[in-house]
Amino acid sequence: MENTKNLIYLDNAATTQVDEEVFEAMKPYFCELYANPSSVYSFAGEAAFAVDKARKQIAHLIHAKEREIYFTGGGSESDNWTLKSVAEQYAKKGKHIITTKIEHHAILHTAEYLEKHGYEVTYLNVDAEGRISLKELEAAIRPDTILISVMAANNEIGTIQPLKEIGKIAKAHDVLFHTDAVQAFGHIPLDVDEMNIDLLSASGHKIHGPKGIGILYVRKGVKISSFIHGGAQERKKRAGTHNVPGIVGMGKAAELAERRMQASMKQISELRDYTIDRIEKEIPYCRLNGDRKDRLPNNINFCFRFIEGESLLIMLDAKGICASSGSACTSGSLDPSHVLLAIGLPHEIAHGSLRMTLSEATTKEELDKVVDELKGIIERLRSMSPLYEDFVKEQVSA
Q: Is the pLDDT reported for residue 59 higher than 70?
């Protein structure tokens, strides 16, 4: 195993390190309290109690009721379940869905799937900061609109959407409102009642919980189909033996996130702003992507002109720095980020993107080292770019 002692990890939007308290909470449910919670004997009762406790912890974080929380295998499953289920259950009302051009591919690809099966999808534009227009949203609603799905905060550029206002519009038009809150859950306050959210997707591994576990919040009264058929788990809506250690871990992670949220938001956003300020002052021809204020506390996303993001990541990796150029789910793609194109960036600039996402463990000293290394790497990459050479010559002659 590679030594991670000197690693600087700045890819917390992709996944997070499991918190020690979370790991300790999970451990008994692997080898000691290993019973299937659906069994009837008393030994299974402890596992069933742990599942109920986790459901309560998660519901409390978003101000929901326990019975409105359904456990899933992760955020992508929750997104798929939402769109396919609402499409099936509300087809008699209509076959029109509204979403945005900057959603995670778990939403976009599911929307494309539904389009092939007779549904119509409106993809809302976003402005240069990645925010939807509420006027455009309201104008897009039709009598046959059954669902509005807008992510709480973007996984690449960190922009937070006006959830309360979206929820108000959806409610006024009697349209269901779903939000993919995978990046926002546990990082910023979410209140499903105050924001009029009918369905919400979240994942454990983005908040220092385990991978392979997520939730779908479904407001009481909203009709959903069974997504996995089999046993009677999750009130007959999502069959399969409960992943008890994962559920316990996500519950504990949610509890810790709620307890630490205010202090964590302050600490991390100060480091974020400090780093953004250094980069903008010390590295020329860069662009901050996403809203400067209404963004996730831990998100930093820049485009650097005249370089390729992939080369930048490789050179950062050689220095022991983990970052990304966008979503981990599309890291194998050579195409520029659909999010960056949607906010109006040309291909050649979108290709030079860097996303750094912090955690409570990130230090100012680490970030100073990263910016120092970044300056040298970008200077080196630009020195090899004929485009940059031509640009400099033009600047000199101008």
A: yes
